[in-house]
Amino acid sequence: MAPKDPAVIDAFVGDLLERSRFIHGRHPKTRAHFAAAGENLETTMNKANVKFDLCRLRAHYRFAPGQAQVYIVRALHPIVQEFKDYIEKEGVVYAAFNQMFEQALLPQSADQAKIEGCGLLGNDQHAFDGGTQLWWWGGGGASDMAAAVPYYAIISRFCNTPGGYSAFTFPGVNERFCKVFIAWNKNLASVDSTNVIHDGEGGWLSTVALNAIVQHAGGNPGQDTFDNFYICDTSDPHYGFKSYDEFFIKELKPVYRAVVFPDDPKIVNLGCTSTICQLYENLKKTDRFWLKNTPSSLNHMLAEDGLVDTFVGGTLFQAMLASFDYRRWRSPVNGMKTRLISGLTHPNSPPTYYADFVTAISSRALIFIQADEPVGLMCFVDVGLCEVSTCGLTVKEDQVLKKGNELGMFHFGGSTHCLVFRGGVTVTPIDQDGNDLVGSKVRVGKDILIVSKQA
Asked: Where in this chain does the record put each L-tryptophan decarboxylase PsiD-like domain (predicted)?
C-alpha cells in the first residue's frame, strides 16, 4: 500500500515529528534537549531561545473550556519507552531498523529531512511516540491515507523496504506494536476521545468534515446536513457520541440504507457503501487475484477452510470503502448464516513486493451464508486495514437473515469487502444510473448483481 500522495504524507509526518519532539522537550529541527519532563514548555523555550508556535500543540493537550493553557513537557509514553528499549537491546532488531532507515526513500521535499536510523533509536525516538500523539489529535485532514491509517502513514516509507519487512516481522516488534494499538483502541473507545468530536478547526464536526461525510453518503453539502443522514443528537456538543469509535460506526437513518428488491432471491444487494473495484470469474483454488494490491488466492482468502472447494469456478466481487463511508456491514441476501470465522490474518508467505506486505497481514472476518436459491452458499468477506483492522461481528451463528440485517462493522477503519459466489452460478453486474457497476460508488442496500444457475 504505497501512498498515492507521498509529498503530502512527507509533510504530515514531518509536522507530526516536529510537534512530538517539542512536546518532549527537544528542538523541533536540531532535536537537541532544551527541557525536561514536567517543565513548562513556554518558560523553557524562552530561556533556550527556541522558536515554536505553541498553538500547534493545542490538540495534544485537551484543555477544558476556561482552563489555563499551560504546556508541560511530557516523558515518552511508557509503552513507547519499552519499545525503544527493546530495539536498542536486541542486536538483530536494532540492525534491521537501521537497515530500513538506510534503504528508505528520501522525502520528495528538500524541506523534509531524512530520518536516520541512529536518530530514531537515540535522538529521535519521537518517530515512535509521534504515533501516540495521534490519540489526542484528529489528523488535521492531511490526506485520505493519513486520516485512515495514521500509523502506517508514519512508517510506510520505512516498512516498504527489505529491511522494513525484516524489522516489522520480528515477533517482539509485533508484540510491542500490539501494545501500542491496544492502548490506542482503548482511548478511541473512551470518552477522552471525544476531544476530536467538535465543530472547531480540525474537528470531526467542523463544516469541512461534515460536508465530506454528507457527500460520501450521497448528499449535497449545499442542501443536506449530517443529521439528515445519520442518527445523532445535534443539541449535544459531541452530537451524542460518547467516543470516537461511536462516531466512526455511526448509524445511517433507515431510509438511506433501504434495500432495493428485498424479496427477490436472484438479486444481490450491496453490503457496504463502497466503490466497486472488480469482478473475478472462474476462481481457482490457488490462482492469484489482487486483493488490496496484494496477490492473494481463494485458498488464502478463505483461510484454507473446508468449504473452499465449493467456490472453485465461482466469482469474487470486490469493493473498497473510503475514509468517510458508512462502516457497518449488512446482509446482501436472504438466507441463514451458517458459519463465522473472525480475527484472521492472511497466511501468505512473504510477498515479492515489500510495498504490499502490510496488506498481507490485515485482519478479516468471514461470514458464510446459505442464501436462498439461486445464490446458494456464498461468503461475505470483510478485510481490515493495517493498524485499524478491527472487524466486529454482530451476526449470530445460525441466524436467519433478511437483506439489510446487520452483520457487523469495521471499528476504527477497514477498507475492503468481498462477496464470493460458488461455482455453477453466473453473476451478472447491474449498471448503476447508466454507468458500469465496476468503478461506481454505490450506497449500501442498492441492487448490484443478478445471480442465475448455469445450464
From this structure: 77-211
* Amino acid identity, position 224: D
Residue with cell 463511508: 325
Query: pLDDT digits over 119-166, tens only?
Result: 444 334 444 444 444 433 444 444 454 555 566 667 777 777 888 888
Give residue 268's identity as a one-letter amino acid code.
V
Q: Which of 45-59, 60-74, 427-441 has the highest mean pLDDT?
A: 427-441
Which value, to the nearest 10 degrees, does the dihedral of the CA atoms of residues 160, 411, 188, 5 take? 40
CA atoms within 13 A on the CB side of 79: 18
Report the predicted TM-score, pTM, of the whole model to 2 decimal places.
0.77
**Cell triple for 205:** 464536526
Domains in the chain with CATH codes = 6-184 (no CATH), 192-248 (no CATH), 259-453 (2.70.70.10)
**Arithmetic mean of pLDDT over the chain:** 81
Q: Which residue has the higher pLDDT, 187 or 360?
A: 187
Mean pLDDT of 35-51: 93
Write the burial class of residue 189 (CB in 10 Å: 0-12 exposed, 13-18 middle, 19+ buried).
middle
Measure the CA–CA gap between 162 and 352, rounded to whole angstroms. 10
* Burial class for 30, CB neighbours closer than 10 Å (0-12, 13-18, 19+): exposed
Cα within 13 Å of Cα(156), Cβ side: 26
DSSP 254-316: GGGGPPSSTT-TTEEE-SS-EEEEEEE-S--SS--EEETTEEE-HHHHTTT-TTGGGGTT-EE
Concatenated DSSP letters of 394-420: ---TT-EE-TT-EEEEEES---EEEEE
